[in-house]
Amino acid sequence: MTLKIGVIGTGMIGRDHTRRIQQVLAGAEVVALSDVNLASAESVRADLAPNAKLYETGEALIAAPEVDAVLVTSWGATHEPYVLAAVAAGKPVFCEKPLATTAEGARRIVEAEVAHGKRLVQVGFMRRYDAGYLALRQAVQQHTGAPILVHAAHRNPAVPEAYVTPMAIHDTLIHEIDVFRWLLDDDYVSARVLYPRNAARSHSKLRDPQVVVLETKKGVLIDVEIFVNCQYGYDIQCEVVGEAGTARLPEPMAVALRLDAKRQSSILTDWKDRFVASYDVELQDFIAAASQGGATGPSAWDGYAAAVTSDACVQAQESAGQAVAIELPARPALYE
Amino acid sequence: MTLKIGVIGTGMIGRDHTRRIQQVLAGAEVVALSDVNLASAESVRADLAPNAKLYETGEALIAAPEVDAVLVTSWGATHEPYVLAAVAAGKPVFCEKPLATTAEGARRIVEAEVAHGKRLVQVGFMRRYDAGYLALRQAVQQHTGAPILVHAAHRNPAVPEAYVTPMAIHDTLIHEIDVFRWLLDDDYVSARVLYPRNAARSHSKLRDPQVVVLETKKGVLIDVEIFVNCQYGYDIQCEVVGEAGTARLPEPMAVALRLDAKRQSSILTDWKDRFVASYDVELQDFIAAASQGGATGPSAWDGYAAAVTSDACVQAQESAGQAVAIELPARPALYE
Amino acid sequence: MTLKIGVIGTGMIGRDHTRRIQQVLAGAEVVALSDVNLASAESVRADLAPNAKLYETGEALIAAPEVDAVLVTSWGATHEPYVLAAVAAGKPVFCEKPLATTAEGARRIVEAEVAHGKRLVQVGFMRRYDAGYLALRQAVQQHTGAPILVHAAHRNPAVPEAYVTPMAIHDTLIHEIDVFRWLLDDDYVSARVLYPRNAARSHSKLRDPQVVVLETKKGVLIDVEIFVNCQYGYDIQCEVVGEAGTARLPEPMAVALRLDAKRQSSILTDWKDRFVASYDVELQDFIAAASQGGATGPSAWDGYAAAVTSDACVQAQESAGQAVAIELPARPALYE
Amino acid sequence: MTLKIGVIGTGMIGRDHTRRIQQVLAGAEVVALSDVNLASAESVRADLAPNAKLYETGEALIAAPEVDAVLVTSWGATHEPYVLAAVAAGKPVFCEKPLATTAEGARRIVEAEVAHGKRLVQVGFMRRYDAGYLALRQAVQQHTGAPILVHAAHRNPAVPEAYVTPMAIHDTLIHEIDVFRWLLDDDYVSARVLYPRNAARSHSKLRDPQVVVLETKKGVLIDVEIFVNCQYGYDIQCEVVGEAGTARLPEPMAVALRLDAKRQSSILTDWKDRFVASYDVELQDFIAAASQGGATGPSAWDGYAAAVTSDACVQAQESAGQAVAIELPARPALYE
To answer: Catalytic activity annotated for this protein (chains A, B, C, D) (predicted)?
Structure first.
């Protein structure tokens, strides 16, 4: 009853997911690998999955009869065709962010899946599997009363020179965009972007920090600070204000030190450490559902909604504080 | 060398300041009292200042030769004429908020004081004397690097039915308006108000909560949540985000309990308890300066700036998310 | 390369470890089950390990050729003979606490393992695998300077009526006894027990709370409060005081709520939730070492040291505040 | 109605109390000063109390008709005779720690005061006036249920070379000795001292750290770590464990910073800053009671109990972990 998985794209994240399946998680094994750079796939096979077969193309891997389910961890522009191929083959597919590079592309996947008639796609929004967000969601449902406001921050110590203003949406805010829809069980209706002066460490092609303001159908107002040159650490903050009280995302576990005239606790500096445990959980969830021939967790519809919202936020970045409307078509019954 | 003080207005706050001067602070005594309701003044005299003389009018009290300095704690609409009279008499005057009910009124006081040629007026913005804000300001100056963003919240458990939308500015935000100018050593250039859905406990004449967004000359972007039906407590939050790190206003002192499966600490529920110590400090500061014949602390100019900003915020409340410009004339040299 | 595991004892913990191996961890499968109550083993097979073979006795299971490694999760009195049998068979064995019910029994296992010449035994002291203790140990090694004092507490909300004074050592303190040896890389030289008045919820056969004071070879003084009727929650506290500073065991992750005039966070009430993640890690560690034919982690020697220390603590419980010496023979080279 | 105070001893603390009375507190003035070093008294007069009269001896000051009440802030060995003289003169007297240098001396004061028939003496145990301890006491009375255990620590960053082992009791623990009697409304019955290895920064005449264990009449067990070379700061910790929960002394107010990959808050390093506000409150309390001709707050009996307990603790320091009994005579009705 071991799920046989094929991995398309063996870069950093593909290699890491392969390690997870082979060495950490129960119930699955990697039986097929593919990468545009065959040497990369060869290396992952040698290190982690000696019994896996190599395929020249992702399409061939998807078609292979021994492959039960597919992981798409290749370059973003290739996600859409691979996911569409997996859906066409009726095989469960886990796709890393983004589901597609355009909202239209994501919508094509939604349409294909709807036509197929049951869920096959899980998108790699791992925060939904983070113990902190799960606890926050439960606290909101049980204690705060209905949400009215969300105050959030997404801070990185620094970014490479190539990081420019729209990437603050596509690469950074994208996580908040998805996880707040899930946290609030809600959808967005508008986005607005406000800028303070630029941080001294930023540059002419990057407005940093920025504050994105989102409104939801239920009337929740969300402000998210994005600050990718904050220097002090990788820090994800989220406070939900409800009718009766507030709830705040737990801080990562840290030893409390008293040292050098300071009470102090470490803050992470590498984003890869922040949600590391949630990658295990999301993939275990994929294995469980794919073993039954389907998919649960973040859906193609969630990936589409994130793409539409991202587009609106980027437009809002250029709209001088004006609200940009966010409109989604009716949600297909498959995703209710 | 005891400073002889006359108090105009012997309601709750006038009585409390009289108690402070008579029983808590060094260097001053209340020698004169006045109130439109003479019985009230009589009662304060009986309880707290048996040697004080009663005056039928504030003007007479100001003119009395034994009065060295004046406290104006009467009804808001009377502040302007009393302060102007004190300035005309060359006597230091402490005036509770608001300095005047209109920006024009506040400006007349500024002009009178400038004409007089030295500072005589202190406005009752007590947060500048709070140990928490003082520590925050020091932390910003020493540790965070130059400020870029401020995230703040001003929450009350509930308000009376008569509290309507503009009061969220005049009665509530007014404290943040002043204290952030001081905290950041900056001035405002625009205000914007954003609304989520109304809280269930609010009513048709009160938009609650609301988020006020202020921009400053130096480019700092400030968001302040005002939520006067938050139910859970009186809670003042302030986080400054600077170039190198963040600093957060200390929580009020509280015992850490482990009880009933919860780590827990009390939150205050009555605003009167939150800054109670700062009233002592601000009045002691007034006594010190007035004993030298002048005034320090929050100035008439600060009162004027707060009035201008309040007017813009109220206008922004009716402007559907649009920014309203805030313009101040050049600051007179007296207030540099 | 899947490790084939036989499980002796299919009660609560044996069932849970079987689930772990079958559904959560990579690299192993349960191929054999045994229990004095065969129906219990039958039920675990049906629910979790349909391919496992049932054995009438633990000895038969240990001898079975398809069994690579053994889990001993049976009744405490049977641990010693099963572990000895596994060592005699040269098979890696994971044994839940206690390694044996007497120090002499534990010593017999040490001697058998030493005679065998390499490590085969891992004892189920899971706290060494807890992320919090691991972080604390790192903090002590990197930040606090050499330890001088440890202040600790082990609190349960309540215990069954059958829980009597010595169980505070054997069932409760046993975890601290092991984890502090590891945390400090040290051994004990004496134990002392001090009693306050009894808690109202306790009874005549249970002194509760009590404070156990341990001294180590390196001169560290450790005080541990044991309070098994503390009412408010299951709470494990540990603060290490070193030459330059202090470090405190992290609190379990919890949402920070502001509600009902309180800042509040949940405290666990069920001990099973407190170190749940560490069971996964300890068993994964066993699988990794057993796959290489050996064992790492808490050793038979650690089990023996814990047994000797427990005996001294129980003696100290009856010694009216006097210190009882703790003496261990020289540590065999196998355990250096 | 201004209370006229004479100050005996114008060193650091005498000067500071004079400043308090003259510049901070209401209702009193310093009218007389005395010091063995007349130049010191002269300097305090010049700086702070120009209208005060200088006296050659404390006895003369006490006898002076214009002196309503006396502050004894001279060298410890002189406290007893000055306090006895004040009691003999029927004048309220505030005496800094220690009330007397021996338990017998303190008892003579108790007997004199009892003979006088009403309270005149307040001892300078300022922690009872600290807002943190007051809040802790209230929490214990309202929330934790009856106390069973107290875990405490008194840490200084460093001490002068002349600081030797008994000073850990007389100069350091003395504050805990008094404040826990008040906190618990209880008396001590035994003391025991336990030592870990010496800290590297300590020296041959100072055992540091040490743990003092006190038992009370009501059966509370108290452990207090004294560590006067802890390096990292001046840190006072206190946790009360009651029948239903625990309460912890609040940390001093501090800004929460996120900086340099750390969440951090300052710890004080100078003991003079830790309870600074409580000095104002204790003296204001003295002024209030002395204005009525009596005394409240920490009594001569409290000073006597502290002296008896200190003696037992010092004896326990030399008793190798044995408990030393603490016996007080029956409490005179005056102190009920």
So the answer is: myo-inositol + NAD(+) = scyllo-inosose + NADH + H(+)
